[in-house]
TrEMBL record, chain A:
InterPro entries: Adaptor_comp_med_subunit, AP2_Mu_C_sf, AP_mu_sigma_su, Clathrin_mu, Longin-like_dom_sf, MHD. Signal peptide: none annotated. This is AP-3 complex subunit mu. Keywords: Membrane, Protein transport, Transport. The keyword Membrane applies. The lineage of its organism: Eukaryota, Rhodophyta, Florideophyceae, Rhodymeniophycidae, Gigartinales.
UniProtKB/TrEMBL annotation, chain B:
This is Beta-adaptin-like protein. GO terms for cellular component: clathrin adaptor complex; cytoplasmic vesicle; endomembrane system. InterPro entries: AP_beta, ARM-like, ARM-type_fold, Armadillo, B-adaptin_app_sub_C, Clathrin/coatomer_adapt-like_N, Clathrin_app_Ig-like_sf, Clathrin_b-adaptin_app_Ig-like. Residues 607-627 are annotated as: Disordered. Residues 612-627 have a biased composition (Polar residues). Its main location: membrane. It holds the Pfam family B2-adapt-app_C. The keyword Transmembrane helix does not apply.
Length: 457, 928
């Protein structure tokens, strides 16, 4: 049970506070700030998410420079608290489009309304974003216009669930155009050694996000597969677990609007290839107080097994239009990924450490920045045309006498490859079961993102 | 269209005035914007309570305005309680609104205002809401009952809300069920009546089936509530597990962990190992998945996984790679990962673990790199077989010649060498050669220790020591201490060659050093040396205790308890819940800090505050703890060369121990002074009426004489017409193990109508039996009557059986004992203080101590001052009585209060406490 919630900005100022049980004084948040300031290195982000207080504990979550701080006075489940703070942050993003001090301050009334609605007496009340939106109208432009005109807000919230069997779906959903979008987002976490060609960790975390805009009470059945078996699957509660366990089929009545249908992990990585190979050479010349750097990003996803959608042919239903949405960035839709996919949002970070005082590095794509306070070099590559290999070469200068501490840095790479799936995941089929019968549009796409993609040199 | 953020900055003069105008404006738009600004001002901490009446007028607006008004009312109702009553009507009206949202909002807001006047009006709408047709209202109402219980438990019970809440458990809507479960379990824990939420073989399956349709949060509550349920047999456990397994696949980490907790607790109930290993496999994947969540969640998961793997080492042993740290992990996550890596390390996975640790050792982050290095050493200590490989890695690290790496290797190498004294001679030479890179005092002390320990095997010990000790006066104390030890060891190992350096260091220690520790140790060595070579060799070069890797290992019992409370705060702290959680009177453990005259013991928060901040959370300090602790050990070992035998240490100390203690004035404050010469008189009550005693009337009771011996004061009166004789006495087994210390002496014959009074001395030491409660059952045999039985209730004379010596509890014991007793069984009473007692707290302590009631701590800063008392009853049952004695509060008053508790639930405990309180009052009320 949560007793109080505070939201602090990056300087420790309390922007929002809400007490559910009695009044936890602000000294608590002050204590939090002092404690974190005292923590290992004075960086609040480095403070353990858990601080004992005389009466209980403070649990915090750090997101976009904001600290979500919850105070609990009884022996609660901390994961429940953290998870709640997580969903709180997610709801804010959902409502305000962004999460930062400004967004919170500009919408503080909505924030309080949300805090009031999401947590009652310290117990979560309504957390599902779709249901919440029924109760509290997001601060959209339209609503502001209404408000400034002095009119009542767009609609008076009422609640009606479709049926007690599907409490996540509201009743009487009607769309002029029925459509459903399925996005498979795979995040690849990899740690490997460039010199020893030794992969120490590889994990693919996938999320299947669905945005359902279907009328009535549609009952859907979906099959999803990948080249490697899914290791750990977590499903939205609308999915019938028994059916999934028996046949691997996802059968569900979707909530209206966007939701996370399923998350999966793939660890069986023998059959998988890394989409980008980082080749690097970093050498220090201790005598000359300098070093040479050469890094290139070789796209390998071309050679990966192209995932395929066993498309319209295998789906017998004649009533549907199978379509694929092309990605705005020019990527191919899922299932038609070709060897020459494009990667974008590419950036490389090399935290050398403070012993590196300067660098002169040049790249064939993007820009290079060096921050001398932390000794970190950032290479913003941006989008890379197909078939090209971005590379970075140049010299770095070391601090005098620092040769002894010079250690090879890790290279942190982030990228996005639209229309490509590392695990070759594909949606085998997506059908609507009777009784609902109408034509609808299906959009499927896939994207691979780098999570913690780090290379040891 | 201005964003609300602007409102954070308005602080013009006359703001209140403007707001008031706005709130009374004619257009809704203006009123609403003023309302927003008012609430904004309120959140900024400005006092806008003067607008109360103006704000309240706006309750008639739309839902969002209503919400703002209610937000305002909740904040200021307490301060404006007389005005708050004005809005009750609005609430009552809203509670029957056709819109369920408004109905629920009205109930919620009313329950939040903890004013008795409002509570009165809450009852009727709440009854209605609990039976509302809309599930949203019902589930809100369920939580309101818990809220109401918080502010007004009596009303909640009297109005039958608890019963209505229990009825909701069978509601058709799973969300309502889960909220009812949550509310009931909260009330149950607040009122200490776990039976409120009945967990039986019929209700638990019902909750479980409701759970599958609940929201994730509802699932957490239900899982949490049933975690205390133990199924009757393997079959039931099987069914429960079957129901819970699907929860492992939930996307919400808290659901997963709550499910894991129940499954782990059900494991012992299962009947086959096959099922257990199946469950382990089932749990592994979701646990690993938790490690891909954000760092804050990961941290909690890791702390719990740490507990799990120490109980079920096989659970994740094949997945050791998932604990490999990533660059982006915050340090606290990395530290936890390292700890688990060490715990999971085995011969089969050591290759990959060690090479991964080697990667970390060259990390840019110095703290992390050093932690990784100490992990290599910990693995060496844990796994004999791979120790060689670990040491070769350490040697490789030394070759890098990076200062912080070399230093850390020296520190951890010391532990490895202590574990395996006779291996790895090569690396010793290597680390000695790297000595120029070592500046850090801890590392240097470790290096010097190594040199001293292996003085006999190293080629150039003496030169090395000479170089190192050259600037001994510039070193930190721990290094100086190690230098002393090392030189003495070298002197013993190498012989005369090292005499010079040894003498030099000893001279520095005994003549020049200003540090007491260094001087003392210098003197100890000097005297040892003068005792002759044999003696010192025996002491300094004796075998040392081996070391073990104990980081993160918890005592068995704690481990079990934490595993039961897996996923709770306790499990994350690795501390039992009772040491930190709880409401009033359950403050954190105050760490005993020596003998402080005044100390706050019981949840009196101000002082506790600092103490608990001091006892910082061991997250980041964890892995360094071993090395420093072992380091401390090695210092202790070293001063006298290892296992300190009492025989060896006695001559070294210059004065006998008792003198030492008394000269330092360390006699404990509570030790009984010479017993004052008071006899505790007992009332003469009839123990055995003549009708039952076959003409023998016995009066008397338990008492204590001036020397503190217990006796049974008995007066025999022959009310029959025949003379009596041959008296004998026997005791039944009793709680305190009291037996007669001497035979009963009554002159026979005892003529009719004559009396004889005698004392039977008693001693504790017989067999004890708790089944007779506080009764002392006595049998008296005489002729011609035969055997008669009577009983003395000791609880009325509890002062007689208090242990006069061992009753002083240590502060932590006192605290834990105090907390183990529920608040409800506390007995309170008034205490009259004599003039002596009021003026001198010392007098109180002395007086009480003379009767076996000891003062554990005083809290003089409190107004009025408070004393914490303890005493222990005789006999093996060791019943402990604790009391909080509050001195008279006001000047001129002589009545204070006492609140006492007893660690026994035997019937009669309450009257024992009453008698205890009376004894205290009696003692303190009489002038000396």
């Amino acid at each position: 049970m949560i007793h109080s919630i505070f939201i602090l900005n990056s300087t420790g100022e309390v922007i929002i506070e809400k007490h559910y049980r009695g009044n936890t004084s602000r000294t608590e948040s002050g204590a939090f700030w002092n404690q974190t300031a005292k923590s290992a290195r004075g960086i609040p982000i480095d403070a353990p998410p858990f601080l004992p207080t005389p009466k209980g504990a403070l649990i915090h979550l750090h997101r976009n420079g904001l600290f979500f701080l919850a105070s609990v006075l009884t022996d609660t489940q901390p994961l429940f608290v953290t998870q709640f703070l997580e969903s709180l942050a997610d709801v804010f993003v959902d409502y305000f489009g962004e999460l930062n001090e400004h967004a919170i301050k500009d919408n503080f009334i909505t924030v309080y309304e949300l805090l009031e609605e999401m947590l009652d007496n310290g117990f979560p009340l309504t957390v599902e974003p779709n249901t919440l939106k029924e109760l509290i109208t997001p601060p959209s432009m339209i609503n502001r216009v209404f408000e400034s005109l002095g009119a009542d807000s767009a609609k008076t919230a009422t609640m009606s669930y479709a049926s007690p069997r599907t409490p996540w779906r509201r009743a009487d959903v009607k769309y002029a155009q029925n459509e459903i979008f399925v996005d498979v987002i795979e995040t690849i976490h990899a740690t490997y050694s460039a010199t020893r060609r030794n992969l120490s960790q590889l994990l693919i975390a996938g999320v299947v996000k669905v945005n359902s805009r279907l009328s009535g009470n549609p009952d859907l059945a979906m099959r999803i597969r990948a080249n490697a078996p899914f290791d750990d699957v977590a499903l939205h509660r609308c999915v019938r677990l028994n059916r999934y366990q028996e046949s691997g089929q996802l059968a569900f009545v979707p909530p209206d609007g966007p939701f996370k249908l399923m998350t999966y992990k793939i660890r069986e990585t023998n059959s998988l290839n890394l989409p980008i190979d980082v080749q690097s050479q970093i050498k220090f010349d201790h005598n000359a107080c300098s070093g040479s750097v050469s890094i290139s990003l070789v796209p390998r996803f071309a050679s990966a097994v192209a995932p395929s959608l066993s498309g319209a042919s295998s789906v017998p239903s004649g009533s549907m239009i199978l379509s694929q949405v092309m990605n705005a960035a020019g990527g191919k839709a899922m299932g038609l990924s070709e060897p020459d996919s494009v990667m974008d949002h590419v950036s490389v970070r090399i935290p050398f450490g403070t012993f590196v005082t300067g660098c002169s590095l040049s790249a064939n794509y993007g820009t290079v920045q060096f921050e001398s306070t932390t000794g970190t070099c950032t290479w913003n590559v941006g989008a890379v045309p197909r078939g090209k290999t971005p590379s970075l070469v140049g010299q770095i200068t070391l601090q005098d006498g620092s040769a002894a501490v010079a250690a090879n840095p890790q290279i942190l790479v982030s990228f996005r490859i639209p229309g490509y799936s590392t695990s070759g995941v594909f949606v085998e089929s997506l059908d609507m079961l009777p009784p609902e019968r109408y034509k609808y549009y299906k959009g499927l796409r896939c994207i691979t993102k780098a999570g913690l993609y780090e290379v040891r040199t | 269209m201005a964003p609300d953020g602007r409102m954070y900055h308005s602080s013009r003069k006359g703001e209140i005035f403007e707001l008031r105008q706005g709130l009374n404006a004619t257009t809704t738009k203006e009123r609403k914007s003023s309302l927003k600004r008012t609430v904004a001002a309120m959140t900024l901490g400005k006092d806008v309570s003067s607008l109360f009446t103006d704000v309240v007028k706006n309750t008639a607006g739309d839902l969002s305005m209503k919400k703002l008004v209610y937000l305002y009312i909740i904040n200021y109702a307490q301060a404006k309680s007389d005005l708050a009553i004005l809005i009750v009507n609005t609430f009552i009206k809203d509670a029957v609104d056709p819109n369920p949202l408004i109905r629920a909002l009205a109930i919620r807001t009313m329950a939040l205002i903890s004013l008795e006047k409002i509570t009165e009006y809450l009852c009727d709408p709440l009854h209605a809401a609990l039976k509302d047709q809309d599930p949203y209202v019902r589930k809100t109402a369920a939580v309101c009952v818990a809220k109401l219980y918080d502010t007004n438990p009596t009303v909640t019970v009297e109005e039958g809300f608890i019963t209505e809440l229990q009825e909701l458990l069978a509601d058709g809507n799973p969300m309502v069920v889960s909220n009812a479960v949550a509310a009931l379990s909260e009330i149950a824990s607040a009122s200490n009546t776990p039976t409120l939420l009945s967990l039986t073989s019929t209700t638990v399956p019902r909750f479980l089936s409701a759970m599958s349709e609940c929201t994730e949060w509802g699932q957490i509550f239900i899982l949490d509530a049933i975690s205390s349920y133990t199924p009757a047999g393997a079959e039931e456990a099987d069914l429960m597990v079957e129901r819970i397994i699907p929860r492992l696949q939930h996307a919400n980490a808290a659901v997963v962990l709550a499910a894991v907790r129940i499954i782990v607790n059900l494991m012992p109930c299962l009947d086959s190992n096959q099922k257990r290993s199946f469950l382990c496999k089932k749990m592994a994947a979701p646990l690993i998945t938790l490690l891909t969540s954000p760092p804050e969640l990961q941290f909690v998961a890791l702390r719990n996984i740490g507990l799990l793997v120490s109980e079920y080492p096989d659970l994740l042993s094949s997945n050791v790679r998932v604990f490999f740290a990533s660059y982006a992990d915050p340090l606290y996550v990395k530290t936890e990962k390292l700890n688990i890596l060490v715990r999971l390390s085995s011969v089969s996975n050591s290759n990959s673990v060690l090479s991964e640790l080697m990667e970390y050792a060259s990390d840019v982050d110095v703290i992390f790199a050093q932690q990784a290095i100490s992990c290599i050493a910990r693995i060496a200590i844990r796994l004999d077989v791979v120790s060689e490989k670990c040491v070769s890695f350490l040697s490789e690290l030394l070759k890098r010649q990076v200062a912080h790496i070399t230093e850390q290797v020296a520190v951890v190498l010391k532990d490895v060498l202590r574990a395996y004294p006779d291996r790895f001679s090569e690396i010793i030479t290597q680390v000695c050669e790297a000595s120029e890179h070592i500046d850090d005092p801890v590392a240097k002390a470790a290096l010097v220790w190594i040199i001293g320990e292996y003085a006999g095997h190293l080629p150039r010990t003496v030169e090395m020591l000479q170089v190192i000790t050259n600037a001994i006066d510039e070193e930190a104390t721990p290094v100086q201490l190690q230098m002393l030890t090392a030189c003495v060891k070298a002197y013993l190992a190498v012989g005369p060659g090292a005499e010079e350096v040894c003498a030099g260091v000893l001279h520095y220690a005994t003549h020049e050093s200003e540090t007491v520790d260094v001087r003392d140790r210098g003197f100890i060595y000097q005297r040892l040396i003068s005792c002759g070579a044999d003696a010192i060799q025996q002491i300094v070069l004796s075998n040392k205790l081996g070391v073990e890797d104990i980081t993160g290992t918890l005592p068995d019992e704690l481990q079990k308890e934490l595993l039961r409370s897996l996923s709770s705060v306790a499990a994350v702290y690795h501390k039992p819940a009772k040491t930190f959680a709880g409401g009033r009177r359950r403050g954190p453990v105050v760490q005993p800090t020596g003998d402080m005259g005044e100390e706050d013991l019981l949840g009196l928060e101000e002082a506790a505050d600092e103490a608990s901040q001091g006892s910082s959370f061991p997250a980041t300090a964890d892995s360094t703890a071993t090395s420093s602790r072992q380091f401390g050990d090695s210092l202790l070992d070293d001063i006298l060369g290892g296992v300190v035998s009492p025989a060896a240490s006695a001559p070294a100390a210059s004065y006998p121990e008792s003198n030492l203690l008394s000269s330092l004035g360390m006699a404990s404050p509570g030790t009984p002074q010479a017993a004052t010469n008071t006899v505790m008189h007992t009332q003469r009550n009839v123990l055995l009426p003549a009708e039952r005693g076959k003409g023998l009337l016995i009066t008397g009771g338990l008492s204590r004489d001036g020397t503190g011996a217990i006796e049974l004061d008995l007066e025999f009166h022959n009310s029959s017409s025949l003379p009596m004789g041959d008296f004998a006495i026997q005791f039944n087994k009793n709680l305190f193990g009291l037996v007669p210390d001497a035979p009963l002496h009554v002159p026979s014959p005892l003529g009719p109508s004559s009396s004889y009074r005698t004392q039977v001395p008693l001693r504790p030491g017989g067999d004890a039996d708790a089944s007779k409660k506080f009764l002392l059952q006595i049998a008296v045999k005489f002729s011609p009557g035969g055997v008669v039985y009577f009983a003395e209730d000791v609880s009325d004379h509890i002062a007689a059986v208090l242990n006069k010596q061992g009753g002083l509890l240590s502060k932590p014991d006192y605290l834990s004992a105090w907390k183990s007793v529920p608040d409800t069984s506390e007995v309170r009473g008034p205490v009259t203080f004599s003039d002596d007692a009021i003026t001198s707290v010392g007098w109180i302590s002395t007086k009480l101590a003379s009767s076996g009631i000891f003062t554990v701590a005083k809290r003089m800063s409190a107004k009025p001052p408070v004393l914490y008392l303890s005493s222990v009853a005789m006999g093996p049952s060791k019943i402990v009585m604790l009391a909080e004695l509050t001195l008279p509060g006001e000047r001129g008053s002589n009545v204070g209060a006492i609140a006492s508790r007893i660690t026994s639930d035997i019937e009669g405990s309450v009257s024992a406490l009453v008698s205890f309180n009376e004894t205290c009052s009696d003692l303190l009320g009489r002038p000396s």
